[in-house]
Amino acid sequence: xxxxxxxxxxxxxxxxxxxxxxxxxxxxxxxxxxxxxxxxxxxxxxxxxxxxxxxxxxxxxxxxxxxxxxxxxxxxxxxxxxxxxxxxxxxxxxxxxxxxxxxxxxxxxxxxxxxxxxxxxxxxxxxxxxxxxxxxxxxxxxxxxxxxxxxxxxxxxxxxxxxxxxxxxxxxxxxxxxxxxxxxxxxxxxxxxxxxxxxxxxxxxxxxxxxxxxxxxxxxxxxxxxxxxxxxxxxxxxxxxxxxxxxxxxxxxxxxxxxxxxxxxxxxxxxxx
Amino acid sequence: xxxxxxxxxxxxxxxxxxxxxxxxxxxxxxxxxxxxxxxxxxxxxxxxxxxxxxxxxxxxxxxxxxxxxxxxxxxxxxxxxxxxxxxxxxxxxxxxxxxxxxxxxxxxxxxxxxxxxxxxxxxxxxxxxxxxxxxxxxxxxxxxxxxxxxxxxxxxxxxxxxxxxxxxxxxxxxxxxxxxxxxxxxxxxxxxxxxxxxxxxxxxxxxxxxxxxxxxxxxxxxxxxxxxxxxxxxxxxxxxxxxxxxxxxxxxxxxxxxxxx
Lengths: 273, 261
Hints:
Distance between the termini of chain A: 34 Å
CATH architecture of the largest domain in chain A: 3-Layer(aba) Sandwich
CATH topology of the largest domain in chain A: Rossmann fold
Structural class of chain A: alpha/beta
Strand content of chain A: 25-35%
Shape of chain B: globular
Distance between the termini of chain B: 24 Å
Number of helices of chain B: 12
Oligomer: heterodimer
Order of helices and strands of chain A: EEEEHEEHEHHHEHEHEEHEEHEH
Helix content of chain A: 25-40%
Radius of gyration of chain B: 20 Å
Number of helices of chain A: 10
Number of strands of chain B: 0
Strand order of the largest sheet of chain A: 7-8-9-4-10-11
């Protein structure tokens, strides 16, 4: 199997604080992968370790087949990255930032940068200091995508983008994915993952608790059960023998019962509760 | 050299303000010299009666009646303090500002090695300091030509070379500190430059503290020594350059292994 990202017991601790703990993550080349977890679960630590911004405490990882410690530059040559909180050099114009990013990659991507800026409605002559978070994100998207990288790593990319722009952004990602790029993005907005991703992984307390194809995750066999009794309404996910469930429900003397397929969000919540 | 160009471009305004402030202040002093020249005999007598105070600034060994003596004290102090502060601020900010202003994540996720980032930041710091010194020298030279005084240009160049090396040394120390900081260190930079300046004053006042001159870059910028010896004091210069090199090496070592915030 050809993996774009492959970690082996990857661990990062900050003194006594946990970052990620023996993380095992595999992302197939060409995948559109959602990395889901609540705040503080270790999503950004994973991404920052994969990018070489921070060194792993133990374990190892490969990105596009290159080691994250010894072959950092080769990895960075082939990726595009959009951080969750993006900041640029004060006083610079949008077009200068985009050009600076291309120059650092020693490539001329002015044509694609122009097209992307137009699609995102970006004013190239504005100073970056004057931009809102959403517009800063757009500059980040252009910088991350303009050189057509093999792997796009995006950390909570849609925060700050209005719904129209979010749609355009995912259109861009889909096009890149169709052209062969692997997309890896972290999010806590499950509908995004459900709508766009082929695969996903849930991270909790620095460990991957489940990773699979999105359709497999949705088909967990679990049912969302809502029972209305005289004492109130109870809602829970049930996984197991359906006869046992019905027996259990009849014992509760229900006034009303609904059994439905859970959404990814409900599956996700079940993992974290 | 993309990072180097970007650094110089982003500091255009700061370079212009500092260069012209120091350069024009020195030029203003030089332009006043013809008026003050006739009174310099009295000034020399006055200073000779002031004991340690004149020794502290190296004025006990200088002749104020000559343009070189006058220049060594006036320009020595303006360029000494101004240049040291500028070098300290520029160098201590060089690496630190990327993390402080949260642009490090942008820069370090481009295909540039940490070594290259440090190298280009270091070169840009030295180039920026060099630009300031060239502008200051041109301002000084023009002002001397305007007043029509005869001077020893060899000593003038030596004097400015010593100031340049002093700023490089302070920059080397502050650059090292910059590699460890993630928040503003401008106060630390200015503090280091000020301490170095005062160490030289202490060494000038007390003969038992002469050894301090090995630790302060102001030891080899002493105008009186340069005029009298017509050379830089290698004994003070070599330890200074070793300190600068050590600072740069530690900066490379630490920045290559640190976690970027």
